[in-house]
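Bug #77: duplicate submission created two jobs. Keeping one. Sequence:
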Amino acid sequence: MNRRDEDEYREFVRVRLEPLRRTAYLLCRDWHTADDLVSITLGKLYRHWRRVRVAENPDAYVRGVLTNAWLDERRRPWRRERATDELPDQPDAAVPTADLADRAALLGLLHELPPGRRAVIVLRFYCDLSVAETADALGVSPGTVKSQAARGLAALRALAGTPSSRSGKEWT
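Kept job's structure:
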């Protein structure tokens, strides 16, 4: 890689590192694994930088690599170490505890979804990708994205105990 390409790659990574980490965390719900996934993704990105930089949508390409890296890791669970003891995080005084509880509950519910369905929910609703962009990132059809998103949202609603359709009344 020449100097100009390397500088361009470094700037791309500098701007997108934190959003990639957050996306990886939403997929795997572990900061250490998220960092590993981002490292794998950035390594692949570096090797194929010339292809990535001329891509129509480099962000979509990178999210697809990240998602595929996570799905690959899920297929090989014996390669991952499991933590046996968890240290509790200290709550941030600036964030109300109700917000933290809601966020923790949502992450817990998200973790209950199967990996493919969780990937669709994260890409569609956290990364705000369209159906077509999500389908491209995951290598599936748009119909699969729609059905998996609908099933994922229904499962999240059922797990949370909220109504899944309006019955003439406003949402409660």
